[in-house]
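Suppose a colleague, Dr. K., hands you the sequence of a protein chain of 222 amino acids and asks what its three-dimensional shape might be. Before reaching for any lab equipment, you can write down a predicted structure in token form. Begin with the sequence itself:
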Amino acid sequence: MKAFPMVCVAILTWIGAAHAAPPPAFDPPVNAPEEQAIFSGGCFWGMQGVFQHVKGVREVVAGYTGGAADTAHYEMVATGTTGHAESVRIVFDPRIVSYGKLLQIFVTVAADPTELNYQGPDEGTQYRSEIWYEPADQQKEIAQAYLAQLRKEKVFQAPIVVRIDPAKPFYPAESYHQNFLILHPDNPYIAYNDLPKIQALKAQFSQYYMAQPVRYSPVAAH
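The predicted structure, expressed as tokens, is then:
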């Protein structure tokens, strides 16, 4: 993760100029107590921080997916050669917040869906935007329909480059990466790149914003 003062201006400009993406037209209700979603969208510090503030979310883990178990380590993933992407695994109650709503928050606040293999100051395939669907659920159909909807309605000026792939094994990141935004709000990278996203979540998704974030505890991990 790199920190550049001017990035703050870029992030604020993107969030301020972009309108919230519309909710998915196809988002069938799920009457189950728990579901999980895995998203990749740049540095997992901010991704984790955003979804930790969403009502109905029970747990958000920063980690790696897309590559092998023996390369799921920060120093190796950072080379961009492992196939892994920095990602988050979100455990949520679909009766409170739907999978489609999480997708809407993902493309509106958490990541820019038009940036290919980078997000803000971070470059490389490990920072790609990707939706990893659970085949047992309707996640693939919901994600495909939603991206098609956004393209048809021309919500974004640039082409959407988010990938949609079946979920692969997810490996939690090192402990020092977990809850990073919560623990280090004064970190320059967090202040420049990620705190504006939290404010955007609060402003654009007030119904789903939760002031007290849910923390990830490895002891209680799934």
